[in-house]
Design brief:
annexin, 72% helix, 14 helices, 237 residues, Annexin_sf
Length: 237
């Protein structure tokens, strides 16, 4: 995974998620919501070359129901990454989301407006929306939707990626984790090591679980694999 170009790696991750089915769709959310606009576009281009079809087309043919609309929308996004936010639009979107969550909860994924907001708005816009939602509802948006839902995965990846990745790392380092879950550790390290957010992830992990990530790796992982992970982690400091 480390030797692959990031765009090829992400394209292959999405393909693998489609082959695994529902249980792995959160990986498609991860790729589409935690990458930059250019990197997501690059992954879509790599998908063309590797699999002779578009990522959107493949998702649409494998995924059905309300999940398809959300996932196709997320991978198709090319988000604005500038510093401008229209506060009135952020507040309006927050009201739409508040009404959708209040009226349908898990069914919010069926709401076209919710999908539009999550798949088109800039991450900075969504941060402002998050603030307005919490003021309107008096509760945390991330607590209003089931943790297991794709909507929650998308919100967490878009709003607090360091928290999302910390939870993935913690699950993969759990002594009772199955073989598939343990592989998440490699995925997070190799996909985030070249990005500045790896340092933020390590800090968030320490804050959430009360132990430095490097120390956890040192204690729970052995051999050359441990050394490799620690080397990648040190690159971010």
């Amino acid at each position: 995974m480390w030797s692959m170009h990031p765009w090829e790696r992400d394209a292959r991750l999405v393909k693998k998620a489609l082959k695994k089915g529902d249980e792995a769709y959160n990986l498609i959310v991860e790729v589409s919501c935690t990458r930059s606009s250019e990197d997501l576009l690059g992954a879509r281009k790599a998908y063309h070359s590797l699999f002779d079809q578009s990522m959107e087309e493949d998702i649409a043919s494998h995924v059905h129901g309300s999940q398809r609309k959300l996932l196709v929308g997320l991978v198709s996004a090319y988000r604005y990454e500038g510093k401008e936010v229209k506060e009135s639009s952020a507040k309006s979107d927050a009201k739409i989301l508040a009404e959708a969550v209040a009226s349908s909860g898990e069914g919010a994924i069926e709401n076209d407006e919710v999908v539009r907001i999550l798949s088109t708005r800039s991450k900075l816009h969504l941060e402002h929306l998050y603030k307005h939602f919490n003021q309107i509802k008096g509760s945390d948006l991330l607590g209003g939707v089931s943790e297991s839902s794709l909507i929650n995965e998308a919100l967490l990846c878009l709003l607090k990626p360091s928290v999302y990745f910390s939870k993935i790392l913690n699950a993969s380092l759990n002594k009772d984790a199955d073989k598939g879950t343990k592989k998440w550790l490699t995925r997070v390290f190799v996909t985030r090591a070249d990005h500045s957010d790896m340092k933020e992830i390590a800090e968030e992990y320490n804050q959430l679980y009360g132990e430095p990530l490097a120390q956890t790796i040192q204690e729970k992982i052995k051999g050359n694999y441990r050394d490799f992970l620690l080397t990648l982690l040190s690159k971010s400091n």
